[in-house]
Amino acid sequence: MMKAKEIMTTDVITVRRDTTVRDLAKLFAERRISSVPVVDDEGLLIGIVSESDLIERDKPLHIPTVISIFDWVIYLESDKRFEKELQKMTGQTVRDIYSEEVASVGPDAPVSEVAEIMTERKVQAVPVVEGRRVVGIIGRIDMVRTMIA
Hints:
Layout: H1 4-7, H2 21-31, E1 35-39, E2 45-50, H3 51-55, E3 66-69, E4 72-75, H4 79-90, H5 94-97, H6 111-121, E5 125-130, E6 133-139, H7 140-146
């Protein structure tokens, strides 16, 4: 059974929370990648940011539905979700748009586990970590390459 360390890319490009959205877009375009791990000052994995996070900035803003009864305003949807959506749309740095929920695997994880994560979570890339330190990344193209190897 093939393992993550056999197919991962070891020259991993990462960004920090203070990376600008413009620099991130430039990185995606120049390097032709679709996702990058977000690391803290010690190089430990804290999240992931993707092209989808950038694209979401251009979608129309959905204003939550409310009911006004007398002087009360009742939100029919989560105002926290609206707040997060607004933050993503107006954000200027990775801090504003990245996802803290990131599925990662260890170097000895079977490739089938990576495939499961990619399909179930609909993600483009899965970081490979030892502890919380990023040692590799597996993108969809890495998975495709296993089919012709």
